[in-house]
Design a protein that fits this description.
Layout lengths: L1 H12 L8 E9 L2 E9 L5 H7 L19 H7 L6 E7 L2 E10 L2 E8 L3 H7 L8 E6 L23 H9 L8 E4 L1 H4 L5 E2 L12 E6 L5 E6 L20 E6 L2 E7 H7 L12 E7 L5 E3 L6 E3 L13 H6 L3 H10 L6 H18 L52 E5 L3 H5 L7 E4 L4 E5 L3 H12 L9 H29 L7 H7 L2 H9 L2 H14 L3 H7 L1
Helix pairs in contact: 1-3, 10-13, 12-13, 13-15, 13-16
Amino acid sequence: MILELVVNGLEAAVHAAPGGRQMVIAPRTFEGLRKRRIWNIGPSLNVAELLQITDLASPLRKQNSLNENFGTGAKVASLASNQHGLRYRSCTGARVSEVVMGYRDGIYGRLYVGAKHSEVCHSEGGYDLSLDWTDVLLCGGSAEQNTVVAPYGASLKATPDWIGAHLEKRLFRLPHNVSLTLMPAIWAGAAPRPVVGLDDRREEFGHTEIRVTPNGVKIHYFYDPPEGESTKSAKGAIAAGTSREAIVFRDEMYDVRGASAWLWDAPKYGTPFGAKYVSIFVELPRDYFVCLEAYRQFLRFRDNDQRQVYLSKFSPLVRGHTPDWLAEIVRSFGPGQANYLDDISDELKALLASLVAQPQSQPPMPGLPVPPKAPAAEVKPKPAEPTAEKFQQPPVPPKPELPTVKRPPETIDLRTPEQPKERALEGRAGKFYPQSHQIFINLAYSSMKDMAGALLAGTDIPLGAHEEEARRIATETAEWALTKRISRAVVYSLSKKMLGWRPEEVSRSQSTESLSLLVDDRAFAMEMARIRYHNQLPPKLPALMAA
């Protein structure tokens, strides 16, 4: 409701004279109670035009089409929460017209239509009849409802500044030279609060960059550093933990993901670490093949099935255009990686090469006789076929090539308590991101601790001064063994694409649940772990054990 009304007001304010392009959300007393008022300067409406816009499926001064405008958004979105009254007033040439819509006896419709209300506006105060303006008053579901503090009634609780936070979450930028202001009573503040689009605050960030793809898609990279880090500006554009990702279309944000949802998704976009300080926005050209859902809740593709547009579709573009400075920042937030990961990477390359090279048909089992080849039959030349066009067969299309995997996934260990939490890996061993081709290993997973304890307990001699070193080696060995097992399982799952497994089957084999169950069965990994553990112990200890 609020977004529809605000966007309508902003679109009108654009056409006001420069310097006077204003929109204000403020309180107004109506029938003895405070109601929320949305007011803007701009091309206004006479009574005939007010009648037209209050037809439920009729726009004014807009193209009514699936790709442009449905003509229903603001009215339909607002009436359900304002059955007592939704009042439109508009001033043109010092003459004020008014239409009130509402719900009575099971029917939505106009409650009142009138003109020449200039005298009423003068007596109420607060109106300037020398300007052209439009004013929408939200009267709520009943005469007793205060729509300033409870615009949706008592059933929906909200923080005092919910409207400012919501608008700044959805408006990437405001129209040029248009101001949008929340009066103090609306956001429970001491002074008017300007609403500013994120793109209009670039100078407040430590670093930003726009990359433009060949088809006109713009990718916006924002970095808002931790408090205390040296930056261009010390204002703090986005508080830590409120970074986000979104699609931008016609200056509005869709599929917005923030907080934990963004942290979980961030590796898909090349930001596995430090995501709480990074925001990414994919801005589509105005003529891109998408259209708005009727109430601006999401985007749809303009094709036959009208699929919803998700940001994840653009993750390869985001990763492929990541600036070097941002990639370096992301790496700086990453954990220190163990030396054994290089060895595992080399092993995965060899494993992947062997799987790719495997023939699709199996050779005969050893020891079984090979059946002799049948003698070649005499081939007689065939008579020439007619060459008439109607007898010619279309060329046989080549068989589609099976998908191949060119490189093994990157393996990344998560060591601090916060890192598994950001990946939603608490109580899980690992997670594979096929989009970024990365495996994240939760080194705090219980099976790794259990294996380390078993290795340490298997040292049947007093460790003495070497106990701490042996404990470290046991922990690292357990991490190595189970990291190796998870990463090899993922490589095997990738090779199944070449055997014709369906995408959903491959995805199930790569799920966090499957990888965790694999690690829980430690028996197959224990023997190689014991050998490595004993080989890594300080030189004196193996000699003592042998004795």
